[in-house]
């Protein structure tokens, strides 16, 4: 479970995120949407412990990200918007490095590494140096690393940017499978079609405030339209900006 409670993050006098209150239960795939500068990346960085809230609290599986950081981190897998690897390590060596960071038992780690290599179809290149990888190959390895320790929560920041169709399909199928098994997924994306296809609920953030929280059907009801794509609905919400009434849980 993920909990933001009255979370505000400021940079000087600018409020990047304002009074965010949001609960995501186990097994839900949640998509956070919004234009550039809306506060999505700041929210994700607070969720994975890279930033601290200026006010409020963030908890993952009951662990506070500020006061119980290590326990919180052990429950999270994180895929950033840009794959960062060690060029002089092979993919397999990188996975072992991640396993050691999490203190995984060697036998368990070996089995998990084999499982993720198979799941993300890494076998053809996993023993090559990562400096030779394409963007899609790197992203598949980062996904495998994020899932290696079997986290309860997976955090994705623009996970499909620049990926080839085959890699997109692999990732989408794995996300669906893991959420069916009870994993919670928090995803920030500009790919609205993917959010509409995968997400149980969406949140739309504008200028640091959560303007909508719910299902796509509920968004259609709120905007009084029966037939409309998420893209059209999103443009209505973000086009109105702060003239739209924010979601009641956000203020």
Inertia-based shape: globular
Radius of gyration: 18 Å
Classify the secondary structure makeup into a structural class.
Answer: alpha/beta
CATH class identity of the domain at 1-75 and 192-251: Alpha Beta
Topology order in helix (H) and strand (E) letters: EEEHEEHEHHHEHEHEEHH
Question: Strand order across the biggest sheet?
Answer: 6-7-8-3-9-10
Runs in which pLDDT lies below 50 for 5 or more consecutive residues are 241-246
Mean pLDDT: 88
Under CATH, the topology of the domain at 1-75 and 192-251 can be stated as Rossmann fold
- Helical residues, percent: 25-40%
Number of E-type strands:
10
**For the record, what is the CATH homologous superfamily label of the domain at 1-75 and 192-251?**
P-loop containing nucleotide triphosphate hydrolases
Number of H/I helices? 9
Distance between the termini: 21 Å
Biggest sheet, open or closed, and with what strands and sense?
A: 6 strands, mixed
Topology:
Blueprint: E1 2-11, E2 14-24, E3 29-33, H1 40-47, E4 55-60, E5 63-64, H2 69-73, E6 76-79, H3 91-101, H4 106-119, H5 135-147, E7 153-157, H6 165-180, E8 184-188, H7 192-198, E9 201-206, E10 209-214, H8 216-222, H9 230-240
Parallel strand pairs: 3-8, 3-9, 6-7, 7-8
Antiparallel strand pairs: 1-2, 1-4, 4-5, 9-10
Notes on the structure:
The chain is globular. It has a six-stranded mixed sheet, with helices on both faces. It is an alpha/beta fold. It is built from nine helices and ten strands. The model is unreliable at 241-246 (pLDDT under 50). Helix 3 packs across helix 4 and helix 4 (106-119) runs antiparallel to helix 5 (135-147).
